[in-house]
Amino acid sequence: MFLGLLFLGACKTPEGKIQLKRDVFIDTNVTLNRIAFGSCNNEGKEQDIWSAIVDTDPNLWVWLGDNIYGDSYDMSVLAAKYDQQLRHPEYQRLLDHSPIIGIWDDHDYGVNDGGKEYRKKEESQKLMLDFLGVPENAPVRKRKGTYQSYTIGEPGKQVKFILLDTRYFRDPLESDLLSKQRYKPNVDGDVLGEKQWKWLEKELTDSKAQVHIIASSIQLISAEHYWEKWANFPKARKRFFDLIEKTKPALPLILSGDRHIAELSKFQPDGLDYPIYELTSSGLTHTWSSPGEEANQHRIGSLVIKRNFGLLEIDWSSELPKLQISVRGTEGQVFLDETLSY
Ligand SMILES: [Fe+2]
């Protein structure tokens, strides 16, 4: 097990350079009070949001995908872009401050809206894990797919992170040129693949954690919009919510990215006597070029069309931890602020 190791920082060389290949260790005994997260980060665009993120003093940073815009079958291109990201002094401030964990989405996977057919996925997985600093002996290094879990905190104050891989095993999508949707529903198609589903069920079953954060690059609850989403795979989406109903994890919060917007959604499946929340936070370096609106019957509060990151603050002082989420901008300004009630 590598989870009990100590966080040692960003592992700089004696010359002070950041290495693509380095080990980031996570101290699993730390009580998490502030968790920051975000997605959609073009390594070639201005990296001026990291100061605002570091200023929130997060105990942990969670990448939610499109961490770079790799978009290539050439692994030297992906490696160079990861390296470029790691060398940004602004990003190095975060690396010096917080341990990081995360997931990928399509652009860092290597192909826009890509799935299991991407032929460079094994090589790309290695580069992604190197970028995150996942130690060489971590179980995820030995299996296909980047899904992982971390349980952090002393007993009674534990947060379990379930990091999904929505790319490696995802069935193909077919363009829909005749409707207001980008893709036709893949009615029997899957997102996670059987091995990851079995792993997910095991992670959720009898979990002792007080808070469950499930990271999914694409949106799970919001189902009406044009873009990629779990709703393109209705059977897989239903299977996910059925699994939450069956396993009943405490305080479930989904974190997603991908969309270049931020929004909070709330959904309560029939068989669950408390809701599931989803906070989408995207993007760190770019957003929609003009104002817009889109339907989401589950949205709480406003649709944020500004560059942003997300912050989860946990108040452990009562028996049921209090979860406060916010969406913040490049100057730390607050666009969305909600206390989640379960
Ligand atoms: Fe994406």
Spans where pLDDT lies below 50 across 5 or more residues: 1-11, 13-18
Which fold name fills CATH's third level, the topology? Purple Acid Phosphatase, chain A, domain 2
- Name the CATH superfamily classification: Alkaline phosphatase D (PhoD)
Bound molecules: fe (ii) ion
Question: Beta-sheet strand percentage?
Answer: 15-25%
Total helical segments? 7
The CATH architecture assignment turns out to be 4-Layer Sandwich
The biggest beta sheet, please? 7 strands, mixed
The gyration radius over C-alpha positions equals 19 Å
Tell me, briefly, the overall form.
globular
Structural class based on helices, strands and sheet pairing: alpha/beta
Strand tally, please?
13
N-to-C series of helices and strands: EHEHHEHHEEHEHEEEEEEE
Helical residues, percent: 10-25%
Q: End-to-end distance, in Å?
A: 33 Å
Number of structural domains: 1
Please tell me the overall pLDDT.
93
Keyphrases for this structure?
single chain; about 350 residues; alpha/beta; Purple Acid Phosphatase, chain A, domain 2; 7-stranded mixed sheet; 7 helices; about 20% helix; binds fe (ii) ion
